[in-house]
């Protein structure tokens, strides 16, 4: 699978590639996207979490399209109160709905908490913003 060279892929190459499940990785943070005056960050620990929990196909789909999901989501939702993260961004990529959860870390700064594939019904109980 060919993945476009970008800062997210570089973080993957530097910290995650070929690691064992649940291995401790170097903690690095990158500015993933700056959009509408807000900055969204991604850490190597979150990337490792995705690497360990998702299938290879979904992981590389997320890795390849994360910037697009963050900068131009199809929809934005408020997350459930008992879940980590304040906002949920959703975008259809190749007929697959990708969800990215963001946590507000300070004024106009967010961090990616997790990302995964969902079915449309997952959004039924969420409030659209």
Summary tags:
129 residues
Provide a compact summary of the structure.
This protein is α+β, with helices and mostly antiparallel strands. The protein has helices at residues 7-16, 44-53, 56-71, and strands at 29-35, 38-43, 75-78, 87-93, 96-106, 109-118, 127-128.
Provide the residue-averaged pLDDT: 93
Helix/strand class: alpha+beta
Helix content: 25-40%
Separate helix tally: 3
For the largest sheet, list the strands in their spatial order.
Answer: 1-2-6-5-4-3-7
- Indicate the proportion of strand residues: 35-45%
Rg calculated over all Cα atoms: 14 Å
**H/E element string?**
HEEHHEEEEE
Gross morphology? globular
Stretches where pLDDT falls below 50 for ≥5 residues?
A: none
User: How can the largest sheet be summarized?
Assistant: 7 strands, mixed
Distance between the termini: 35 Å
Structure summary, number of beta strands: 7
Number of domains: 1
Write the layout of secondary structure elements.
Elements: H1 7-16, E1 29-35, E2 38-43, H2 44-53, H3 56-71, E3 75-78, E4 87-93, E5 96-106, E6 109-118, E7 127-128
Parallel strand pairs: 2-6
Antiparallel strand pairs: 1-2, 3-4, 3-7, 4-5, 5-6
Helix pairs in contact: 1-2
Structural commentary:
Helix content is 28%, strand content 36%. With 129 residues, the protein is α+β, with helices and mostly antiparallel strands. It has one domain. A seven-stranded mixed β-sheet has the order 1-2-6-5-4-3-7. α1 crosses α2 (44-53). The mean pLDDT is 93.
